[in-house]
Write a structure and sequence with these properties.
It is a single chain. With about 250 residues, this protein is of the alpha+beta class. It has one domain: Electron Transport, Fmn-binding Protein, Chain A (Pnp Oxidase, Chain A, Roll), CATH 2.30.110.10. Helix content is about 25%, strand content about 25%. The protein has 6 helices and 9 strands. It has helices at about 10-15, 55-65, 115-120, 150-160, 165-170, 180-195, and strands spanning about 80-85, 95-100, 100-105, 110-115, 125-135, 140-150, 205-220, 225-230, 240-245. Strands 1, 2, 3, 4, 5, 6, 7, 8 and 9 form a 9-stranded antiparallel beta sheet that branches. About 20% of the residues are buried. It binds flavin mononucleotide (FMN). Flavin mononucleotide (FMN) binds near residues 81, 94, 96, 98 and 117. Its cofactor is FMN. InterPro entries: Pyridox_Oxase, Pyridox_Oxase_CS, Pyridox_Oxase_N, Pyridoxamine_oxidase_dimer_C, Split_barrel_FMN-bd. Pathway: Cofactor metabolism; pyridoxal 5'-phosphate salvage; pyridoxal 5'-phosphate from pyridoxine 5'-phosphate: step 1/1; Cofactor metabolism; pyridoxal 5'-phosphate salvage; pyridoxal 5'-phosphate from pyridoxamine 5'-phosphate: step 1/1.
Length: about 250
Protein backbone atom coordinates (compact mmCIF):
# COMPACT_ATOMS: atom_id res chain seq x y z
CA UNK A 1 0.00 0.00 0.00
CA UNK A 2 1.35 3.44 -0.86
CA UNK A 3 1.56 5.79 2.11
CA UNK A 4 2.12 9.53 2.50
CA UNK A 5 3.97 11.58 5.06
CA UNK A 6 1.20 13.38 6.94
CA UNK A 7 1.92 17.06 7.50
CA UNK A 8 1.48 18.41 11.03
CA UNK A 9 -1.35 20.97 11.47
CA UNK A 10 1.25 23.77 11.66
CA UNK A 11 2.99 22.65 8.52
CA UNK A 12 -0.40 22.20 6.88
CA UNK A 13 -1.56 25.74 7.58
CA UNK A 14 1.84 27.11 6.52
CA UNK A 15 1.50 25.18 3.29
CA UNK A 16 -2.05 26.46 2.86
CA UNK A 17 -0.87 30.04 3.28
CA UNK A 18 1.49 29.65 0.38
CA UNK A 19 -0.15 30.39 -2.96
CA UNK A 20 2.44 28.32 -4.80
CA UNK A 21 2.01 24.60 -4.15
CA UNK A 22 5.12 22.99 -2.69
CA UNK A 23 5.24 19.26 -3.22
CA UNK A 24 6.84 17.73 -0.15
CA UNK A 25 5.14 14.37 0.42
CA UNK A 26 7.20 11.19 0.43
CA UNK A 27 5.42 8.27 -1.15
CA UNK A 28 6.57 4.68 -0.85
CA UNK A 29 7.00 3.49 -4.41
CA UNK A 30 4.80 0.50 -5.21
CA UNK A 31 6.52 -1.98 -7.48
CA UNK A 32 5.87 -5.40 -8.93
CA UNK A 33 2.86 -4.57 -11.07
CA UNK A 34 1.61 -7.44 -13.15
CA UNK A 35 0.71 -5.85 -16.47
CA UNK A 36 1.06 -8.91 -18.63
CA UNK A 37 -2.10 -10.81 -17.74
CA UNK A 38 -2.95 -11.52 -21.41
CA UNK A 39 -6.63 -10.91 -20.80
CA UNK A 40 -8.88 -12.42 -23.40
CA UNK A 41 -11.78 -10.39 -24.77
CA UNK A 42 -15.00 -12.01 -25.85
CA UNK A 43 -17.48 -9.46 -27.14
CA UNK A 44 -20.46 -10.38 -29.29
CA UNK A 45 -19.19 -10.76 -32.87
CA UNK A 46 -19.64 -7.83 -35.18
CA UNK A 47 -20.08 -8.54 -38.89
CA UNK A 48 -20.81 -6.44 -41.93
CA UNK A 49 -24.28 -7.92 -42.44
CA UNK A 50 -25.46 -6.37 -39.17
CA UNK A 51 -24.17 -2.84 -39.73
CA UNK A 52 -26.58 0.02 -40.38
CA UNK A 53 -25.78 2.60 -43.09
CA UNK A 54 -25.47 5.30 -40.46
CA UNK A 55 -23.36 4.74 -37.32
CA UNK A 56 -25.57 6.76 -34.94
CA UNK A 57 -28.14 3.98 -34.39
CA UNK A 58 -25.29 1.53 -33.74
CA UNK A 59 -23.74 3.91 -31.20
CA UNK A 60 -27.08 4.21 -29.43
CA UNK A 61 -27.53 0.42 -29.45
CA UNK A 62 -24.06 -0.12 -27.98
CA UNK A 63 -24.66 2.54 -25.33
CA UNK A 64 -27.96 0.85 -24.47
CA UNK A 65 -26.22 -2.53 -24.24
CA UNK A 66 -23.45 -1.03 -22.07
CA UNK A 67 -26.13 0.05 -19.61
CA UNK A 68 -28.23 -3.11 -19.96
CA UNK A 69 -25.96 -5.85 -21.26
CA UNK A 70 -27.21 -9.23 -22.39
CA UNK A 71 -25.34 -12.58 -22.28
CA UNK A 72 -24.76 -12.27 -18.52
CA UNK A 73 -22.25 -9.44 -18.81
CA UNK A 74 -21.96 -6.79 -16.11
CA UNK A 75 -23.39 -3.33 -16.80
CA UNK A 76 -20.82 -0.62 -17.56
CA UNK A 77 -20.71 1.77 -14.59
CA UNK A 78 -20.29 5.12 -16.32
CA UNK A 79 -20.44 4.52 -20.06
CA UNK A 80 -20.83 8.24 -20.70
CA UNK A 81 -17.26 8.86 -19.50
CA UNK A 82 -15.21 9.44 -22.63
CA UNK A 83 -11.65 10.48 -23.30
CA UNK A 84 -11.54 13.74 -25.22
CA UNK A 85 -8.32 14.36 -27.13
CA UNK A 86 -7.31 17.71 -28.49
CA UNK A 87 -4.24 19.17 -30.13
CA UNK A 88 -2.61 22.51 -29.39
CA UNK A 89 -1.89 24.99 -32.17
CA UNK A 90 1.68 23.67 -32.20
CA UNK A 91 0.53 20.07 -32.62
CA UNK A 92 0.99 18.83 -29.05
CA UNK A 93 -1.83 16.43 -28.07
CA UNK A 94 -3.59 16.20 -24.71
CA UNK A 95 -6.40 14.02 -23.40
CA UNK A 96 -8.80 14.09 -20.48
CA UNK A 97 -12.08 12.45 -19.51
CA UNK A 98 -15.35 14.35 -19.91
CA UNK A 99 -18.96 13.19 -19.72
CA UNK A 100 -21.15 12.68 -22.75
CA UNK A 101 -24.39 14.46 -21.95
CA UNK A 102 -26.39 14.05 -25.13
CA UNK A 103 -26.28 12.53 -28.58
CA UNK A 104 -28.41 14.55 -30.96
CA UNK A 105 -28.90 14.09 -34.71
CA UNK A 106 -25.55 15.74 -35.43
CA UNK A 107 -23.11 14.68 -32.77
CA UNK A 108 -21.84 14.10 -29.26
CA UNK A 109 -22.35 16.83 -26.64
CA UNK A 110 -20.32 17.60 -23.55
CA UNK A 111 -20.08 20.65 -21.30
CA UNK A 112 -17.08 22.47 -19.94
CA UNK A 113 -15.34 25.76 -19.23
CA UNK A 114 -14.83 27.86 -22.38
CA UNK A 115 -11.61 29.28 -20.92
CA UNK A 116 -9.98 25.93 -20.13
CA UNK A 117 -7.00 24.35 -21.84
CA UNK A 118 -9.25 22.01 -23.78
CA UNK A 119 -11.39 24.95 -24.94
CA UNK A 120 -8.35 26.73 -26.34
CA UNK A 121 -7.29 23.51 -28.10
CA UNK A 122 -10.80 22.96 -29.47
CA UNK A 123 -10.25 26.20 -31.41
CA UNK A 124 -8.40 24.00 -33.92
CA UNK A 125 -11.88 22.83 -34.90
CA UNK A 126 -11.13 19.12 -34.38
CA UNK A 127 -11.26 16.61 -31.55
CA UNK A 128 -11.28 12.88 -30.92
CA UNK A 129 -13.34 10.89 -28.42
CA UNK A 130 -12.78 7.41 -27.10
CA UNK A 131 -15.05 5.18 -25.04
CA UNK A 132 -13.73 1.98 -23.48
CA UNK A 133 -16.41 -0.29 -22.07
CA UNK A 134 -14.35 -3.02 -20.44
CA UNK A 135 -17.29 -5.02 -19.09
CA UNK A 136 -18.61 -5.66 -22.60
CA UNK A 137 -15.19 -5.68 -24.36
CA UNK A 138 -16.08 -2.80 -26.61
CA UNK A 139 -14.39 0.40 -27.69
CA UNK A 140 -15.76 3.26 -29.78
CA UNK A 141 -13.53 5.94 -31.28
CA UNK A 142 -14.77 9.16 -32.82
CA UNK A 143 -12.95 11.83 -34.81
CA UNK A 144 -14.91 14.94 -35.54
CA UNK A 145 -15.40 18.60 -36.19
CA UNK A 146 -16.12 20.72 -33.13
CA UNK A 147 -18.78 23.36 -32.74
CA UNK A 148 -20.11 25.22 -29.71
CA UNK A 149 -23.70 24.50 -28.78
CA UNK A 150 -26.03 27.52 -28.60
CA UNK A 151 -26.07 29.56 -25.37
CA UNK A 152 -29.76 28.62 -25.01
CA UNK A 153 -28.90 24.91 -25.06
CA UNK A 154 -26.06 25.40 -22.57
CA UNK A 155 -28.32 27.43 -20.28
CA UNK A 156 -31.06 24.79 -20.48
CA UNK A 157 -28.62 22.04 -19.52
CA UNK A 158 -26.96 24.18 -16.81
CA UNK A 159 -30.36 24.66 -15.18
CA UNK A 160 -30.65 20.88 -14.67
CA UNK A 161 -27.29 20.57 -12.83
CA UNK A 162 -27.17 20.21 -9.05
CA UNK A 163 -26.52 23.52 -7.24
CA UNK A 164 -23.04 22.40 -6.15
CA UNK A 165 -21.98 21.80 -9.76
CA UNK A 166 -23.49 25.13 -10.81
CA UNK A 167 -21.46 26.93 -8.15
CA UNK A 168 -18.36 25.00 -9.17
CA UNK A 169 -18.73 26.21 -12.75
CA UNK A 170 -18.49 29.83 -11.52
CA UNK A 171 -15.86 29.16 -8.88
CA UNK A 172 -13.34 27.18 -10.93
CA UNK A 173 -10.97 29.02 -13.27
CA UNK A 174 -10.52 25.63 -14.92
CA UNK A 175 -6.98 24.70 -15.98
CA UNK A 176 -5.44 27.74 -14.19
CA UNK A 177 -3.05 27.62 -11.26
CA UNK A 178 -4.78 28.09 -7.89
CA UNK A 179 -3.45 28.35 -4.36
CA UNK A 180 -4.12 25.93 -1.50
CA UNK A 181 -7.56 26.74 -0.07
CA UNK A 182 -8.39 29.09 -2.93
CA UNK A 183 -11.10 26.86 -4.41
CA UNK A 184 -12.89 26.57 -1.05
CA UNK A 185 -12.84 30.38 -0.72
CA UNK A 186 -14.14 30.86 -4.24
CA UNK A 187 -16.91 28.29 -3.75
CA UNK A 188 -18.05 30.08 -0.59
CA UNK A 189 -18.02 33.48 -2.32
CA UNK A 190 -20.09 32.22 -5.24
CA UNK A 191 -22.52 30.43 -2.90
CA UNK A 192 -23.01 33.65 -0.93
CA UNK A 193 -23.43 35.70 -4.10
CA UNK A 194 -26.08 33.44 -5.62
CA UNK A 195 -28.14 32.59 -2.57
CA UNK A 196 -31.05 31.63 -4.80
CA UNK A 197 -30.78 30.55 -8.43
CA UNK A 198 -27.35 30.20 -10.04
CA UNK A 199 -27.27 31.57 -13.61
CA UNK A 200 -25.20 29.90 -16.33
CA UNK A 201 -21.75 31.55 -16.44
CA UNK A 202 -20.84 33.17 -19.77
CA UNK A 203 -17.58 31.18 -19.75
CA UNK A 204 -19.33 27.80 -19.48
CA UNK A 205 -21.20 25.74 -22.07
CA UNK A 206 -21.32 22.85 -24.44
CA UNK A 207 -19.47 21.56 -27.44
CA UNK A 208 -20.73 19.21 -30.09
CA UNK A 209 -18.32 16.82 -31.79
CA UNK A 210 -19.79 16.18 -35.24
CA UNK A 211 -18.21 12.89 -36.34
CA UNK A 212 -16.50 12.27 -39.66
CA UNK A 213 -15.10 8.95 -38.45
CA UNK A 214 -16.53 6.42 -35.97
CA UNK A 215 -14.92 3.10 -35.19
CA UNK A 216 -16.69 0.21 -33.46
CA UNK A 217 -14.28 -2.26 -31.87
CA UNK A 218 -15.38 -5.57 -30.41
CA UNK A 219 -12.69 -7.43 -28.49
CA UNK A 220 -12.25 -11.06 -29.55
CA UNK A 221 -10.07 -13.96 -28.40
CA UNK A 222 -6.38 -14.01 -29.36
CA UNK A 223 -6.51 -10.33 -30.35
CA UNK A 224 -8.46 -11.09 -33.57
CA UNK A 225 -10.86 -8.28 -32.78
CA UNK A 226 -13.68 -7.03 -35.01
CA UNK A 227 -13.20 -3.43 -36.15
CA UNK A 228 -15.50 -1.47 -38.42
CA UNK A 229 -14.73 2.12 -39.31
CA UNK A 230 -17.33 4.50 -40.72
CA UNK A 231 -15.97 7.57 -42.50
CA UNK A 232 -17.35 10.48 -44.46
CA UNK A 233 -15.45 13.42 -45.97
CA UNK A 234 -17.65 15.98 -44.22
CA UNK A 235 -20.71 16.17 -42.02
CA UNK A 236 -23.20 16.35 -44.91
CA UNK A 237 -21.84 13.43 -47.00
CA UNK A 238 -23.04 9.84 -46.75
CA UNK A 239 -21.05 7.34 -44.68
CA UNK A 240 -18.93 4.50 -45.99
CA UNK A 241 -17.84 1.63 -43.78
CA UNK A 242 -15.01 -0.89 -43.93
CA UNK A 243 -13.59 -3.64 -41.79
CA UNK A 244 -10.10 -2.93 -40.52
CA UNK A 245 -7.45 -5.38 -39.34
CA UNK A 246 -7.19 -5.60 -35.58
C1 LIG B 1 -15.15 10.79 -14.88
C2 LIG B 1 -14.76 12.22 -15.18
C3 LIG B 1 -15.70 13.06 -15.75
C4 LIG B 1 -15.37 14.37 -16.05
N1 LIG B 1 -16.30 15.16 -16.69
C5 LIG B 1 -15.95 16.41 -17.06
C6 LIG B 1 -16.85 17.18 -17.86
O1 LIG B 1 -17.94 16.74 -18.26
N2 LIG B 1 -16.48 18.45 -18.17
C7 LIG B 1 -15.26 18.97 -17.80
O2 LIG B 1 -14.99 20.12 -18.11
N3 LIG B 1 -14.37 18.24 -17.08
C8 LIG B 1 -14.68 16.97 -16.72
N4 LIG B 1 -13.79 16.21 -16.02
C9 LIG B 1 -12.47 16.81 -15.65
C10 LIG B 1 -11.54 16.75 -16.86
O3 LIG B 1 -11.02 15.44 -17.02
C11 LIG B 1 -10.38 17.75 -16.77
O4 LIG B 1 -9.65 17.54 -15.58
C12 LIG B 1 -10.84 19.20 -16.78
O5 LIG B 1 -11.90 19.40 -17.69
C13 LIG B 1 -9.69 20.13 -17.14
O6 LIG B 1 -9.16 19.78 -18.41
P1 LIG B 1 -8.27 20.75 -19.28
O7 LIG B 1 -7.35 21.47 -18.33
O8 LIG B 1 -7.52 19.87 -20.24
O9 LIG B 1 -9.18 21.72 -20.00
C14 LIG B 1 -14.08 14.88 -15.73
C15 LIG B 1 -13.13 14.02 -15.16
C16 LIG B 1 -13.47 12.71 -14.91
C17 LIG B 1 -12.41 11.78 -14.35
Amino acid sequence: MPHQTILSPVARSAAAASAAAEATATIATPTGFRLTAHNQYNATRLDAAHLPRDPFPLFRLWLHEALRPTHGQTAVREPEAMTLSTVSSSGIPSSRVVLLKEIDDHGFLFFTNYESRKASELETGHAALSFYWREVSRQIRVVGIVEKVSPEESQAYFATRPRGSQIGAWASPQSRKVGEGEMERRVKEVGDKFADEVPCPPHWGGYRVVPVEIEFWAGRPSRIHDRFVYTRPDASSPWTVERRAP
